[in-house]
């Protein structure tokens, strides 16, 4: 694909990203005029507006954008790895492991950084478990990896149900909100944004190899691609992205499934364009979904995972119908 044809859609998505972030900061239970936001960020504005923008809305909006981008890029990588357009970052049980880790910390009365660290540890444990079981004493195949992930995810689901049934009633609301996806306590988006940017910088130069790998391992090997190291790298990268996203915002579905599928229908299947487009489009989707979750029944809030599910299911069915 010529570079000129790649720049235009990315430029459009970048502009939409800025507009989505601006809308997210503007809108809330108490709306702020644009002049107050500008003064809060660049000048010595009103103290209340400064706190609302810099400590509450802007970090949450950036966390939503980073999480959506991480999930969408992870979904695109998983679909290349498994050579299945319906693959999803959570299909390998990574989110289940993260949920078990976070819920254990919540049951123990922990909060904040400890919950996030426990979720990340659970995600990594699930990654190693799936990879170890799928690899066994031989080599793994996409179908074997997929089936192992589905079984491990089902096992994590059973453990989560048991933990919820045995948990104290006072801790259930927070645990359920986390399981449905919650950005209320996302105040440190910088490491998620840094990981998203670093992944795009590292993976985009491999776009040609990913394009060949998506056509099958035999063709990729015939054209000089180191298939096994490439597959391992994709799996580790997708697992890391999903683990960071789950650590930041809890379990949020459909972003990693709908966004790459939608972009492929609109932009083609060139990974050099799809991966950065997924980072931007996933961020836009989750930022707008979080804005809707904060405002639809303000001052109460909905879990953002509920919004993505309500938007994702009909959108995916429409895309699936159009692509027949």
UniProtKB/TrEMBL annotation:
Which family would the database say this protein is a member of? Belongs to the binding-protein-dependent transport system permease family. FecCD subfamily.
How would you describe this protein's topology in the membrane? Answer: Multi-pass membrane protein
TM ranges are 63-82, 89-107, 113-133, 145-169, 189-207, 234-260, 272-289, 301-320
Gene3D superfamilies linked: ABC transporter involved in vitamin B12 uptake, BtuC (1.10.3470.10)
Q: Which InterPro entries match?
A: ABC_BtuC-like, ABC_transptr_permease_BtuC
Q: Which domain of life is it from?
A: Bacteria
Q: Which UniProt keywords apply?
A: Cell membrane, Membrane, Transmembrane, Transmembrane helix, Transport
The identity of this protein, by name, is: Iron ABC transporter permease
Q: Where in the cell is it found?
A: Cell membrane
User: One matching Pfam family, short form?
Assistant: FecCD
